[in-house]
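Following up on my earlier message about guanosine-5'-monophosphate. Here are the inputs again, as you asked, copied directly from the submission form:
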Amino acid sequence: MKDNLINEFDSLLKKSKNTLIIPHKNPDGDALGSSLALNFFLMKKGHNSLVISPNEYPSFLNWLPGQNKIINFSLNQKKVISLIDKADLILTLDYNDLSRTGEMESILTSADIPFVMVDHHENPKSYADLTFSEPQISSTSEMVYNIISKLDHSKIDSNIATCLYTGMMTDTGSFRFPSTTSKTYLIASKLIDFGANHSKIHQNVYDNYTFNRIRLLGTCLSNLKKIKNLPVVYTFLSQEDLRINNFKKGDTEGFVNYGLSLKNISLSVIMIEDKLQNLIKMSFRSKGSFSVNKFAKIYFNGGGHHNAAGGTSLKSLKETEKKFMNAIQECKKDFEV
Ligand code: 5GP
Ligand code: MN
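Thanks, got it. Here's what our run produced:
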């Protein structure tokens, strides 16, 4: 992280009072953890700072410090529009394209105030006045740690540490993905010293399944299919599967990873039917050289990281499955077999 960027950020902060922090739509542990941590930091520096989530966040994050103050745009559109009117700085965390805020995109695009991006995805768009973009860093939370420890290390407390540790843990698959570096561990260690309770955080996030969620995972695993002669598995959940198991937002989080725990599998995919939005939400996870970022971009109007990406399909579940099978055949040569 370059010092001149930190200095520019510092002077932007000095010129502003009313700051808004906006994670992406369907925020995950990293988006929410990094946003809440930065929010605590800015409040300690005397800002009127708020986190606005484009929509509801999953219940496995509803214990995070500060989460009860988050404003949900989808439920409070008028309030958010007036907050944006009064804001003098907007910070966008864990995405690099305003379309990732869903219905907030047009409001943000027309807001005439400085924007700061803090993100670790590839190919950032150029909407921000100040862009922190580091695709090699494991999480936005790790970036936020680097930024705030340079700005004012003494302001890091147990709330900030807990939020950042949660974001780092969730985006690194509990510190096991290749993006995890010795620096990631070093920061995690410092966060524990600042008061993050690693064992409690892990329990809060991962040992928090409802009975329905485990049953839904059962359906997801029994729907699993293997593509012949390729190291690829995929599964799906229909709207009916979701309905029967009383689906709640966030219930399918992490399901796609189970496919990768199979021996000799380097791509795992899940397709989830969303009848309300009339689309199929896809998640892709890979190991090794197969780029799901590229795959999602080319075939399913999505993107993400080299080994973790998402996308959408506007076809039916059956048609999406066919399209996926054809796409895989086209990419056959990209698998190390
Ligand atoms: P997930 O599969 O957990 O929804 O997302 C995995 C990664 O892909 C995340 O880093 C997320 O930001 C990114 N991602 C998920 N869905 C989309 C999408 O529709 N478009 C783009 N560009 N990225 C996505
Ligand atoms: Mn992230």
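One observation from looking it over: Residues 30, 94, 120, 139-140, 171 surround manganese (II) ion (ligand 2) (CB under 6 Å). Hope that helps, and feel free to reply on this thread.
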